[in-house]
Specification:
Largest sheet: 6 strands, mixed
Low-confidence stretches: 2-31, 131-137, 167-171, 261-280
Distance between the termini: 57 Å
Oligomer: single chain
CATH topology of the largest domain: Aminopeptidase
CATH class of the largest domain: Alpha Beta
Number of domains: 2
Strand content: 15-25%
Order of helices and strands: HEEEHEHEEHHHEHEHHEEEHEE
Number of strands: 13
Structural class: alpha/beta
Amino acid sequence: MKTKIYFIIILLGIPIASIANIPIDSTKTTDKKVFTVVLDAGHGGKDSGKYVAQTAEKDIALNVVKLLGQQLESHTEIKVVYTRTTDQFLELYQRADIANNAKADLFVSVHCNAAAATEAKGNETWVLGIHRNADNLEVVQRENSVILLEENYEEKYVGFDPNDPSSFATNLMIQEEYLDNSIEMGANVQDRFQNQLNRKNRGVKQAGFAVLRLSYMPSVLIETGFLTNKEERAFLRSTSGQKKVANSIYAAVLDYQKNRDVNLFEVEQVRRELTGPSVSGNKPVYKVQISASSNKLEAQAYNFKSLPEISREKEGSLYRYFTGHVYSLQEASDLRKKAIAKGYTSAFIVVYEKGERRRL
């Protein structure tokens, strides 16, 4: 009997030993993490938003968000969270709380525009920043004015004046960590509206929207068109127009997520035997971007929570800050985890090959 038991144990052990010697592909990964998107239909309830020719912004925003959510929910790796799915009034801080509590990877707020000049048309996407001109301030004041409908708003938004977005300048240092990603998402939206719908591209802009200020993740506020423009109002009121708008934003979200696939995986420990001549001089170099800011800081560990090998690159008006200088994706993945643990939650991996930097 004992002999039979030993024989069975030996047989069971053979596959295990064989598997242990099989080379592991370095591209193998564990299950995907869920990419969480919070969809925010602007206004609602007693706050109609812009109201022109019996057309309420709150209704169009909600219809677009529902259509967008349906498309995103068809992807098993994407989780969709809504701030509202009915004609409900929500305070701005509540919308941000929903996103923050969901630990969202992306916050998308959908709105409609308006202007005194009825010929104004096109789409624009906003990210957080200080308003730089009177036009920006007008849009910000209009979107922030919902605060005045809230009870005890002075207590809820201490130090923030909805008519003077520069009053939250100190918050920008916290949010600048996400600015680069927000701008990228905004550019995706604008490109899709222009190329798919042939709409006028009014660009990605920065201003002090309260709902963006309170959301601690990459965030965009999309003005889908002008209700004060007769042609655009008819388009936004129509079912086909709303579907087209939702589809463009859907494609933009997928574009944004696609560039983050590497960082949505936990890379498994791998061991690969290298063969052939050494090519160490031509190896790609990996770094982890931890921040992008308009502020120039010394590229020293003490400015970045003691992370190793800090480097800085200037691109336009932005400074990009990186940690690490390694030669394997595994090392870069480990370093990214370390950066996230230290509070750089939007850290991502970049690779340098043939003198060019690209994001993984």
